[in-house]
């Protein structure tokens, strides 16, 4: 088989890249190791920056998003005795949209299926060959047969545990990592959201986040020790702890109910440079991971994919500069979003091992935020998404 671009990974990065390239007349194929149902069963992100919303609409997959997404003009931060409403709209003129990553992925799958785009599921043992040469190819097993795809370019959209980043020789990779001493226990429940906007809570017992997917579906998180397992947390224990981390006036409003999904995700900041090697280009979690506190993971995948799709389109039109500059362009935005995610995590989580000084610094930071339009504007412009 031959395709112009072979995309490894059928998460939001790979699917969106395939859609953008095929809309531009470029023959792209997606190789995904899991089944479509498995990919769609993953509960991930919930906040879309305006940049991602614009891309999805331009790619023709914004209909359900516009009908079912919730536009949020701000968020509430409650921590260290402060209650700060960050008014995104007033401070930046922009908003964010609440629409689950699962739904984005579903919309992308449906659009690709409608155009007959090749998305091969349960592709096993994907291996990249010749990325440094002019004739790269990918081998894999599919439906019990050994397969090979010859292509012009390979896009590594296969996430943190994928094969693409590891194809770049370790001696050529500069990897930056910070592992946080806690994880997020997330719960999905058929309950009304706590507020009409998201609530980020910093408490000495730990961070909590009250989010949502729609008017009857809530997504809440608790900071938990890395040693915790999901089975350690009954629904009752979760709700009781969440209430303890909220101010009393919010805790009494919390609607509780049985969980329909519960999972623990570790938190790390990770960036691997460069994001390209020969004719292999990385996008999304394959190249970087951010703690979800700033709601940037999915949104960084979107800006990577936007840059890469436009660079590949330019390449096929004879302009080689954008593709040559892809890694530097993507990394410039990745580092700024990674800083924001790290700073939000530092401000709102408890770090008992770091003692009372950090706790006082956190308190001072939130108090400054509460009293400074400049500080609130800085947080808002990062949260709604820095320019592409
Ligand atoms: P993904 O990991 O989503 O997709 C990669 C795909 O590649 C997967 O489908 C995988 O099966 C496939 N793959 C891997 N190896 C392969 C191989 N060798 N061959 C073929 N296919 C292969 N972000 C937020 O903004 N907010 C959140 O609340 C949030 N919560 C998260 C919770 C968890 C548990 C995780 C893991 C991430 C979370 N994220 C969150 C980040 C998440 O949304 C990612 O940023 C987003 O999924 C990135 O999309 P992709 O780059 O497509 O990577
Ligand atoms: C979510 O709704 O899953 C969500 C929202 C905001 C975050 C992280 C996760 O910062």
Structure, described:
The chain is α+β, with helices and mostly antiparallel strands and 388 residues long. The chain has 2 domains: 5-69 and 100-177 and 268-344, FAD/NAD(P)-binding domain (3-Layer(bba) Sandwich); 180-267 and 351-384, D-Amino Acid Oxidase, subunit A, domain 2 (D-Amino Acid Oxidase, Chain A, domain 2). 38% of the residues lie in helices and 28% in strands. Strands 6-5-14-15-16-13-17-20 form an 8-stranded mixed β-sheet. A 6-stranded mixed β-sheet has the order 8-2-1-12-19-18, covered by helices on one side. Strands 3-7-4 form a 3-stranded antiparallel β-sheet. The radius of gyration is 21 Å and the shape is globular. The two termini are 35 Å apart. The model has no long low-confidence stretch (mean pLDDT 97). Residues 45-47, 198, 209, 211, 219, 292-293, 295 line the site of P-hydroxybenzoic acid.
Offer a few descriptive terms.
388 residues; alpha+beta; FAD/NAD(P)-binding domain; D-Amino Acid Oxidase, Chain A, domain 2; eight-stranded mixed sheet; six-stranded mixed sheet; 14 helices; 20 strands; 38% helix; 28% strand; globular; binds arabino-flavin-adenine dinucleotide; binds P-hydroxybenzoic acid
Set out the fold topology.
Layout (H helix, E strand, L loop, with lengths): L4 E4 L3 H12 L4 E4 L4 H6 L5 E2 L1 H9 L4 H6 L1 E3 L1 E6 L2 E6 H5 L3 E3 L2 H14 L4 E2 L3 E6 L7 E6 L2 E6 L2 E4 L7 H4 L6 E16 L9 E4 L5 E7 L2 E9 L9 H11 L2 H4 L7 E15 L2 E2 L2 E3 L5 E2 L7 H20 L4 H4 L1 H23 L6 H17 L1 H11 L5
Parallel strand pairs: 1-2, 1-12, 2-8, 5-14, 12-19
Antiparallel strand pairs: 3-7, 4-7, 5-6, 9-10, 10-11, 13-16, 13-17, 14-15, 15-16, 17-20, 18-19
Helix pairs in contact: 1-6, 1-10, 10-12, 13-14
Bound molecules: arabino-flavin-adenine dinucleotide and P-hydroxybenzoic acid.
